[in-house]
Amino acid sequence: MSLFLKLLPLALFLTVAGFLAKGLTLDPSELPSPLVDKPAPQFTVATLPEGGPVFDSSSMAGQVWVLNVWASWCGPCIAEHPYLIELAEQRSVPLVGLNYKDQPADAQQWLARLGNPFTHLLDDRAGDVGLDWGVYGVPETFVIDSRGQVRFKHVGPIDEKSLRGKLIPAIDEVLQGAAS
Amino acid sequence: MKKLSASSVYLLLLLLITAMTPLQSADVLVTFDNPEHSQLYHALLREYRCLKCQNQNLADSNASLAGDLRREIRDQILAGKAKKDIDEYLVARYGEFVLYRPRFNAKTALLWVAPFLLLGIALASLFYMVRQRNRQPDHLPIDVTGNSVETQQAQLEKARRLLEE
Questions:
Q1: A4, CA 20 to 30 Å: which among A97, A151, B50, B138?
Q2: Tell me: the pLDDT tens digits for B76-113?
């Protein structure tokens, strides 16, 4: 039997083991977003507090902005919140909060208690905007560049590591791209 | 007493089975005027993965996202959209992963081809091994004890010599 055939089972085993080992390091709940590097979905939606002006996503054209999807019923959002406040202090990009499938009164109480880092607060009670953005787990955070392209997406709560290691670098990269 | 406890065990089992019957959310039972629409709707709900609880399809899932997607699919069916359009809508938002049967394209080619590739490798190596074995010279004749005839003759010879001594 030739050497090639003798080594074939070993090679097959190593290939399969390699894929499985890689699989162990991935989080199956984290899906690659098809939105990244695509135009951000356009929408108009009511804002909070109620009775305020309607928000039109096209008004954000020409600037880099961050969209954070959150809700007062969402536990991980509480853990994430201090890092959003830190983000708002560190980078002067608009931080748009999409209040997803929530009661306005609950949302406003929640923000009064924990602080409000959002420059715009959007009321997506029915979850229609979330549906268009492919939101499947709250919280989710998107970075949109000045040409209206989604450039970064983070699913799940932002923590210290993902704020400094991913989100802020992603914003800086997009800001530099916009400046040059 | 013994009989009583046996029947109460049965009752308990019955209760457990009843409790395990999958609950279907009310909006799965939507009705359509057009039976074709209804058929498409129920077929599609089994084709799409719920992104929130990834091992359930949209028909089975009680997650609120699944409810929203069912509503959206119903609306699109009523608007006369075909399966292809609805696939497109979902893939644009959630990626190929939302389809339980991913479409064949550059990204999913390996996924579709790999089983046949592996089967091909297995068959080829089987074929090769069988051919190698057939090529080898025939083995020496073997008797029922598993020894070759020659060994057996040598043993007989040895025994005979021992007897003669």
A1: B138
A2: 999 988 999 999 999 988 888 889 888 888 878 888 99
Quick check: helix, strand or coil at residue A96? strand
Q: A159: domain range?
A: 37-179
**Fold type of domain B2-98:** Helicase, Ruva Protein; domain 3 (1.10.8)
Q: Is A12 exposed, middle or buried (0-12, 13-18, 19+ CB in 10 A)?
A: middle
Token readout for B93 is 């938002």
pLDDT of residue A154: 92
SS3 A176: helix
Rounded (5°) CA angle B85-B86-B92: 90
Would residue A142 count as lying in a domain? yes
Task: Sketch the domain layout of chain B as residue ranges.
Answer: 2-98, 109-164
A32 with B128: Cβ contact below 8 A: no
In a domain, A15, yes or no: no
**What single-letter DSSP state applies at residue A133?**
T
Query: CA–CA separation, A148 vs A143, rounded Å?
Result: 10
Tokens 């096209």 label which residue? A58
- Assess contact for A64 and A177: CB atoms under 8 A: no
User: Which distant-in-sequence residues (6+ apart) come within 8 Å of A39 by Cβ?
Assistant: A148, A149, A150
- State both tokens at A111: 């923000």
Q: Which chain B residue is nearest to residue A4, measuring alpha carbons? A: B125
The residue of chain A nearest to residue B126, with distances taken between CA atoms, is: A5
Cβ separation of B51 and A137 shorter than 8 Å? yes
The CATH number given to whatever domain includes residue A154 is 3.40.30.10
State how many domains chain A has: 1
* Residue A2 contacts B where some CB pair is shorter than 8 Å: no
Strands A55-56 and A44-45: antiparallel
The parts of chain A modelled with pLDDT lower than 70 are 1, 178-180
